[in-house]
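Possible race condition, two jobs.
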Amino acid sequence: MATEALVSFAVERVGDKLIQEAKFLKGVSRQADRLHRDLRAMQCFLEEADKKQEVDSRVRNWVSDIREAVYNAEDIIDIFILNAQSLRRNFFLKCGFKKLINRYKVGKKIEALQLGLLDISNRREALGIKNIGEGRSRSAENQMLQGLRRSSPHAEEHVVVGLEKEADELVNQLIGGDLRRRVISLVGMGGIGKTTLAKKVYNHRQVVECFPDCRAWAYVSPDCRPRDVYMQIIKQLVCTSTKDQQVLEMVEKLQEHKLGDFLHEHLKEKRYLIVPDDVRSCRDWNCLAKVSSNDPDCLGNVFPDGGNDSRLLLTTRDKDVALHADARSTPQEMQLLSKQKSWNLFCGKAFLDHVDADRYPPDLVELKRGMVDKCNGLPLAIVVLGGLLSRDMSHTEWRKVHDNINAYLAKEGSQTGVMTVLNLSYIDLPSYLKPCFLHLSLFPEDYVISTRKLFLLWIAEGFVLSAEQADQQSMKVTAEVYLNELINRNLIQVVRMSVNARVVECRVHDLMRELAIRKAKEQNFFRTHDIEDPLSSSTSNSSLFSSKCRRQSIYSDMERYASVEHNTPYLRSLLFFNLGHEICRFSQLDFIGKCFKVLRVLDLEGVKVESLPSIVGTLIHLRYLGLRHTGLKLLPLSIGNLRSLQTLDVNNLKQVPNVIWKIQNMRYLYMEGQKYDIPLKIDTLENLQVLSGITFKQWIQNNSSKLTCLGKLKLEGRYELVEGVEFWKSIAKLRVLKSLYLKASEESSFPSLAMDSCLYLSKLDIKGHMQKLSESFQFPPNLSQLTLDSCRLDCDPMPILEKLPKLLTLRLRAESYLGTEMHVSANGFPQLKVLQLFELSKVIKLNIENGAIPWLMQLHCQFSTRISGVDKLSNLVEVKIVIDSMIPSFSPFARFLSTYRSRKYHLYWDHSWTTNRNGQKEFWTRRRKAIDCQTCAATGLTSVQNSAVAVEMIGPIFSRWDSTQEKGS
């Protein structure tokens, strides 16, 4: 479980406090240091205990005692530091006595805690909990899960919906392609239908004919025992006669490595198909295939490559496993079902007599559709629901299932056990990812999560530990690695990606969120409060949360939450969501500073507040303060007392108080949209990594050479208020600056910018009027990404920009060029991979000469822009077309698409239709659907989808488009 990781993080935090807060801990440092050593000693036993607690309630209680002891240690030290800080502000004699009393009390608390730890340690041996590495137990849960998940290729599903295309593609990969041994992988979250699809393909007629004598299916158990897998395969391949039975008896006596050698010899001269079902990790694959650790590219000595079209069809939840097994094959990632396919699958399971669902009363059908929608396209959940509702039930019973659907789907001990299957993905997580996954349970259902915010929250919580604790620069990079691991394990869904293929927004599937909530509640990790949320429906107004609760997520209105009794003095994180638009009175926020004195994370984003009370400045342990979109105009001067604050995220203030310089630990400062340009000192913030929203004038008044960690900078306001040469000298002093964003106010403009001294800058965004584009030699020499927005350039920018030698991404947006034509000459843009031309309303033509942009992979443009030379772009794989005006007929659209005639692309297209008072929106919706249908007919597309959804264009395309179609327009 996550206990080991949570305790590890807490113990590390206690250790950090001993170093960072030595001046406050004077007098109790020896006891605190010993406590830290005792806690670290207990960590050694947690991994073994975590496994045993699944089946032994005594061990579960023991683990819970350790967790509580670590939490108590954190609380004791944090409260002591808080009191010590308060007493330092007073110089009266009586404060000396208070300090002595404070030290005495904390010393006694530490002694009591150490006695408790001694008792916990003594109970460890009685429970049979060993040190890490001294032994591994096989839990009863693993055995139960093995029985639940054990798959057989012969038990094929009779009702399979929405997998026809995927099955055909897999069959083609298995029976065709190159002669080398390939590992073809099916990747997806638990319950999405990987095994179902693999069975369908395994039993497909063409596959059976292609591998008539050497096909085998092997289920891989959670603890991955290679010997069991080998025996499953051997029994299917050699057990065909009495003689083979004798061989089998002999083989069963072999040791594991000899068994692998035997299998290798048996497969060596054969064309085989092996299906390892549910491989959990790269380590498991290495164990099964006996991949050499010295040569990771080695194909292994169990499944030989005889150059005869042999195949392995692997199913896994982790994309990294698929890529590790065969880096040259592209994994097939399974998608959730659409609403219609979900309903079809449900009907196939629920209506056993195969009658039409229409014979049921409309209100019952609507009820069932609502329940199917709650499954969010997860086939396993839909199948379980269909089986549950297949028997005759009253309307009351159906309503009961509808209102408690997650409880029914998660029913423990059921043979289907949706949550039990999904729980496998959680169990397989490494310890450092478990708290990150549990943290996702704080966000509301279907909530789109900003990854920028998520990274900062993880860092503030202490979940992200860099290789070197002092290396703070790498923490956001590490957080992004964590996120990508969770995505590859199919625990998080991607919502939106940047042009650089980095995840910008994500969400969690409802059932995965339900799993995270259950695990988080077990760990006292968090609680939610929502007027409509059944999690809090039984609570009274007097008290909502356990005093041990560490995090709260509030979905109800602020007024109701502020009015209840708060008995969680050790709360560390408080997040608010979906709070409506009421103005929050000053007094309503006062309780936060009074009740939650050791708070580390406070996120008020979206809460409409008049002002922030000064008592917030007493939260000296606060690391993250989110105030974006609150409507706040001023911050209290006490904000400068938040000495632990790492992230301040606020926007649209009248002015930022000139006390930020006091917050020495500040790393991420966001303050866009200041109304008044008053002096702001920030050059004391030596740990600052991101600074967004400072004005040009404020910036030039600081000594930039002191900001030695600054990697990302966004400046805004009136550029003409600063002297150009001095400004760029100040930027050049930033030795680790990678990203620079310049935004000029509407009444301001940029002259020609001399940026060649910025040697380390790789990303540059310029928004605002430019009098003249800088010459190519004036740009940063290592620039790889450039965005121009609203620059209103009169001259074609391409002749200058095409000479930038390292440019990979170019985005021209929103009237950045006011001319009608652009031209890219031969050999222009030697490295460019992404070209975006958006909202250039006057540009009607882009001419690309032969030999230009040789590495272009993505082209994003408007329907109104005609582009010549596209057919010469040999590496182009994606075209995005934005239709920003109504199309009077299909013919111009088809002529435009015919530009991309010769190869296979991914086509994206967006609409920005308008609605007038006469209801034209409905008319143009019908017109749009007609265009979709005609596009499919005229171009050979299998489908066309809107809203930037990828559609594969099957080439050669437009083969049926000719001049007669054009004449008919």
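Job #2 (started ~2 s after job #1):
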Amino acid sequence: MGSLGAMLKHPDDIYPLLKLKMAARNIEKQVPPEPHWAFCYTMLHKVSRSFALVIQQLGTDLRNAVCIFYLVLRALDTVEDDTAIETDVKLPILIDFHRHIYDPKWHFACGTKEYKVLMDEFHHVSTAFLELGKGYQEAIEDITKRMGAGMAKFICKEVETVDDYDEYCHYVAGLVGLGLSKLFHAAELEDLATDELSNSMGLFLQKTNIIRDYLEDINEIPKSRMFWPRQIWSKYVNKLEDLKYEENSDKAVQCLNDMVTNALIHMEDCLKYMSALRDPAIFKFCAIPQIMAIGTLALCYNNIEVFRGVVKMRRGLTAKVIDRTRTMGDVYAAFYDFSSIIKSKVDKKDPSATKTLSRLESVQKTCRDSGALTNRKSYIVKSEQSYNSALIMVMFIILAIIYAYVSASPRF
């Protein structure tokens, strides 16, 4: 759960955190009996707990397809990410990965920790893949082939221009959006979304991750991973790694704000995509990561800590997003609130300020025009309230007792 200090400051986080913890425990116990499926869902929980939670809302067939799709792409990403693999070894693996998923005997040693286990025992993923419906298999193969080719292209090419940046993000994330749209359509639950909107769903998430992970990527051993486009960072420093040095703090924040402003261009496409979804489970599956992305950008904007350590949403707020995101009105409200946070942090002297404000005002108008903001109760932006610490502690203890009782109770 979240830290005690955070819960005392945000006591309304406690109940969603407790629900999230209980849901996570239930997922750990709901492991399929078949060894290959047991491996896949156990591995999914290890590589992404939040994704493992959200995916549970999908129907069984679609959930299995999305699980395998995610693990296949995580494996492909593990090969791309491993800077210890020589280029002449890495390239053919990336290009042929879509064929390897049909071979239950194939595996490749790379990665670290849980990703090494995924790669060493990839035969479980292939075995599960071969049990999926043909429509699901074709969609996963197609996206894996295109993504592998794109990754191979950028192994030998640096991200120089903003167009390069968009192209790279398309290969590693936009194609995920296209693939998910194909899976939703194959399940006969949604109309096939346009490539443009599907691509934006992926780009918004990927650009957020690239911005947030600057320090981790630049400090990668044995070789830095550099995804910020030269066209942007060269306006502020001579080398991308210069942004992490304290003497360049002002320029680093300006560059960061420029990068966030670039990501904001995808917001309205994301809202269009989500507003067209019909299936409630698919809607929630898509909406939660997008709200997390705009929330993360709100934290990162104008924040020098991006260059000093880890910047991420507190767990209590994450729990509330997962618990309370149910309708498109919730999404409009969250986008409006987080956009307001960014807007409040814009310095009119910032080089990107005019463009930033324009994009924020545009998405806020879309949210207002939806009519969903009337008489809403925001759980993101609210005035500070004064709480009695003793009362909060009593509430926390009662909830903890309830949680312990439920967790210990036998299930029949």
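The CA atoms of residues 3 and 148 lie 40 Å apart.
Logs attached separately.
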